Amino acid sequence: MSVVPPISICTWQFEQANLTAGRLLENGYPALDAVIAGASVEEQNLKNTTVGKGGDTDREGNVSLDACVMNHDGDCGAVVCVSNTSHVSALARKVMEETPHVMLAGAGAEEFAIKMGFTDEQLVTPIAKKAYQKWLKSPEYKPIINIENHDTIGLLALDQNGHMAGACSTSGLSYKMKGRVGDSPIIGSGLFIDSEVGGAAATGMGEEIMKTTGSFLIVELMRNGLSPQEACEEAVKRIVRKNDKFRDFQIAYIAMDFKGNTGTYCIHPGFNMMHYQNTKNEIIKANSFLKN
Ligand code: SD4
Known about the structure:
Elements: E1 7-11, H1 15-26, H2 31-43, E2 65-70, E3 76-82, H3 88-98, E4 103-105, H4 106-115, H5 126-137, E5 153-158, E6 164-170, E7 191-194, E8 198-204, H6 206-211, H7 214-223, H8 228-242, E9 251-257, E10 262-266, E11 272-277, E12 280-285, E13 287-288
The protein binds N-hydroxy-L-asparagine.
N-hydroxy-L-asparagine binds near residues 50, 150, 173 and 203.
């Protein structure tokens, strides 16, 4: 049994998602069930333009989703470029549990979804279509580096048995190139968990997170003695040191160790982490590298 009461944390102010995960943990559900249920809240939230159904399209007008999950045993699953179901975290779990592989992409992932009983869905909503048509009038051919428009959900949960699991789910950058995949479904970049140390998850400019394998880096820094907070700060500073354009994009990390210590840090102000423990679902304002 865990010595700390169950905890769930997630990126951004996804109160309902984190509450869903936290309550499941309190009711004795395993961490993996909790993070997938939490991620699913945003995958179904049509107002969230960066996750699941209602996500912004790519340059061709299609929504393509990416997600991954990881558990305390180091097992993981991921799907990328999925356009026929919004339940991509649950699908990533199926890849982990039902296949000998870690990642399925595109048509293969979509066929697997149907085989696993997921309903074929249309992911482009009328609002996303309208936004795409507006964007087409003056298409920006560099990735939209959205300081205020990041909504990818990354969750980490520590359950009553002291097991940790995580999920990360996104529709990626708005109007990305067809086939572009960011950090979110990449084990070690968007999410990483090690049963000896703890876990981390990321949101923000995926290319920069991938170049530094951000979540893996944070877990390794924790292994070497840094607190979750110090590790998140160092991982953000690593990016800042390597890219002098860091003012143009947002990066934010969350992390948790097995004692229940948590941390979060970002480049630009405005990022919040949700933290659920002992029936309290709190908004934690992250400290940022840039002050305004
Ligand atoms: C990506 N990290 O695809 C994601 C974007 C993101 O909220 O976090 N959006 O690069």
